[in-house]
Amino acid sequence: MSFDGYKATVKEGDTVVLYLTISQVYSIKAQEKTINKKGIEVESVFQTPYGALKCAELVGKTYGSKVSLSKGWGYILQPTPELWTLTLSHRTQIIYTPDISMIIFQLELCPGSIVVESGTGSGSLSHAFIRAVKPHGHLYTFDFHEVRSEIARQEFDDHGLGQYVTVCHKDVCENGFGENLNGIVDAVFLDLPHPWLAVPHAVKALKESGGRICSFSPCIEQVQKTCLELTRLGFQEIQTMEVLQTQYNVQTKHIPVKDLDFLKMAKSENKSDGAEKKESEVAKFLTAIPPMQQPGHTGYLTFASLYPIWSRKLGISIDENETD
Amino acid sequence: MEIESNEFEIKAGDFAIVQRQGYTKLHKLKPHGNMLIGKFNVEMDNVIGQRYFDTFQMKNSPENKKMFILEKVEDSTNATDALNIEKSGTDNRNITSQGDTQSLTKEDIDKLQDSELNSNAIIYELVNNSKTFNMKTGYSQEKYIRKKEKKYFEYLQLRKPTIRLLTNMFYRQDPVKTLGIRIDDLSQILTYANIHSEGNHLLYDSGTSGLMMAAIMNAIGARTSGTLIHMHPGNQCQKNAFVAMQFPEEQKVRCLNVNLYSVIRCFYQDTAKEENYEPTRKRQKTEDPSSASTTKVEEEAPKQPQWQLENEKACRILKTKCDSLVVTSKEHPVNLVKELLPFLNGGRQLVVFSLTREPLQDLFLYLKSRLDIVAIKLSNNFMRYYQVLPERTHPEVNMNSGGFILSAVKLNC
Ligand SMILES: C[S@@+](CC[C@H](N)C(=O)[O-])C[C@H]1O[C@@H](n2cnc3c(N)ncnc32)[C@H](O)[C@@H]1O
């Protein structure tokens, strides 16, 4: 229940983020018992590279404090959507924070917005959607994979977010988002293999006063088909982009400096040890080093606006993007 | 869902984003008033009472040749009439020189424009008087028309400001005025700082024209419990973007705008208000002379001035500590962060933006040396747009580079 609102201490059943190092971050449940692979209830113990942690010991601890492990220590943090994205168990490909940030921003979500998402997948993006629209907004998330839908629903309840989200098990390309959402939605998000098939349903769901849509696709062919469909259905401000993040490691570097001046003079002219020392001088500088390898592609983000009904019929595109 | 009719009505006093092709400009509407759009002087009176997203056509004013008036477009059949263009060449082999192929002079074009601003008509003339147009490929013809259309485009729309529209507008007009914050930067500052409807958030901003405070207040939302303490270095804070958002009063008052120096002094010294008042103001003026010029001298009434009430309110929140700290500063961030970190709760996020990397490298090392900061990350983004057209999909030819973001988590120890 630890995702809704800022919390000071860990309660029984909370999902807690265990931070060891920048690349060793885990989420665990603060509870005494767990069900093991054989279906038997056992004591819940989390194994870390620095030793074991009894999950029940977390209860009552302050978020942001240190916990001892048998061979070291870690810190416990209250989960945020960003930390959750880093630690959740992948049931599908997921969307990461740089793309998520852009999606939330471009869909113009704020508390009170009604947003539709498909598919639910692993719920990485859903958590960020919920944070953006609560307390009086709502997320409707659709997936045609029954088990994924069910796990997601349990997870939202477990995280204390159930009241802000409705999880639907449905094929949105075939059946749309449902009558009950017609004309009440502010924004639609699609992460589907055939997003263009869902675009007509998005038009139905969006408010008469208009709204925003986003489609995330790894392949450019999907983008092309989606853009054609968006254009056909009268969307405006159609824009495709990609965002890639580089994380740097800041380090002080030392590099040797060569001074060859002494070579210009005969040996007898200078006292040789002085010159030798100078030759092996070191320069020190602070720098930020990108990783050796990093993702070079996540997906293309296509955004568009559906204008209010009173301006949909005019075929004048005011927002012509500057193309060369 | 019915649309509340007056929610979309354009009213005098509204801030609107006026959009004409790729061009956008923020404008405060008056019952009677003009606005310079590109090189056109446009009388805006006719938009009042109409709706946002309505399309208006710029028409030559009957009274004044140099003025344009706006007319609401009800039916666009004329506007979308396709240009009749003769068949295009297959390549550019017959085009020898790029320049001087237009036989219309600048005066001719001005005359056309003065008789009637109609981009189709003007482009028609331009095309007919171009010696090379018919030799161009279909692609270059299209490009030519698009370019001319942009110049003579006579339609515009008014939009209600949103953070997205404002961020793009500011960035296009002059990135310096918002410290170079690009949309991807802004979007990530908000997520990494975990800004949402709850909590007390703390911002120090010294130069985004109010964009940061507007974006944070927008994420905090209307009818919610979240508050923002916005610290700024001047006498008056920059708040163009905030004002443009026209948040409801209830939401506006949850943003406390306080001067950095006076709120910190208030927090640590808590001295008698009367003593503090004069010197503080003088001091602020010298800190930021540019903003002082726009300031009215506050009347010294016996009751406490507004800024002092806000200071005290902010101090009460600072004593209980905040749930996020965002710094978007012109100044070097290390000292600022050092001073502001005590106001951040344990287990909460800190986010600092800088257009250049070096100040954040220093900050990275400083934070690393502290025992109460973990998960320090320094990042920047590669962002680019794509042209998506059948058989002609490719990244946009131009791109720009964004800034750097440092994020970290403060511990409870
Ligand atoms: C890549 S995943 C989404 C990941 C999600 N955005 C996240 O961040 O965790 C795509 C999901 O779409 C679902 N899906 C595919 N086609 C669908 C359809 N026609 N209707 C509903 N869901 C669909 C799949 O079952 C899958 O779970």
UniProtKB/TrEMBL annotation, chain A:
Reactions this protein catalyses: adenosine(58) in tRNA + S-adenosyl-L-methionine = N(1)-methyladenosine(58) in tRNA + S-adenosyl-L-homocysteine + H(+); an adenosine in mRNA + S-adenosyl-L-methionine = an N(1)-methyladenosine in mRNA + S-adenosyl-L-homocysteine + H(+)
EC main group: transferase
Pfam families, per the entry: GCD14 (PF08704)
Gene3D superfamilies linked: 3.10.330.20, Vaccinia Virus protein VP39
Keyword Ribonucleoprotein: no
Binding site for S-adenosyl-L-methionine: 122-125, 143, 171, 191
Listed GO biological process terms: tRNA methylation
GO molecular function: tRNA (adenine(58)-N1)-methyltransferase activity
Domain tRNA (adenine(58)-N(1))-methyltransferase catalytic subunit TRM61 C-terminal: 72-305
Chief location: nucleus
UniProt GO cellular component terms: nucleus; tRNA (m1A) methyltransferase complex
Location(s), subcellular: Nucleus
Enzyme Commission number(s) from the entry: 2.1.1.220
Keyword S-adenosyl-L-methionine in record: yes
Keywords attached to this entry: Acetylation, Methyltransferase, Nucleus, S-adenosyl-L-methionine, Transferase, tRNA processing
Biological role: Catalytic subunit of tRNA (adenine-N(1)-)-methyltransferase, which catalyzes the formation of N(1)-methyladenine at position 58 (m1A58) in initiator methionyl-tRNA. Catalytic subunit of mRNA N(1)-methyltransferase complex, which mediates methylation of adenosine residues at the N(1) position of a small subset of mRNAs: N(1) methylation takes place in tRNA T-loop-like structures of mRNAs and is only present at low stoichiometries.
Name listed for the protein in its UniProt record: tRNA (adenine(58)-N(1))-methyltransferase catalytic subunit TRMT61A
Lineage, opening ranks: Eukaryota, Metazoa, Ecdysozoa, Arthropoda, Hexapoda
From TrEMBL, chain B:
Source organism phylogeny: Eukaryota, Metazoa, Ecdysozoa, Arthropoda, Hexapoda
Keyword tRNA processing: yes
Localization per Swiss-Prot or TrEMBL: Nucleus
Protein name: tRNA (adenine(58)-N(1))-methyltransferase non-catalytic subunit TRM6
A Pfam family recorded for this sequence: Gcd10p
Source domain of life: Eukaryota
Family of this protein: Belongs to the TRM6/GCD10 family.
Segments of skewed composition (Basic and acidic residues): 275-288
Keywords: Nucleus, tRNA processing
Keyword NAD: no
Assigned GO CC terms: nucleus; tRNA (m1A) methyltransferase complex
Coiled coil: none
GO BP term, example: tRNA methylation
Disordered as annotated region, ranges: 275-306
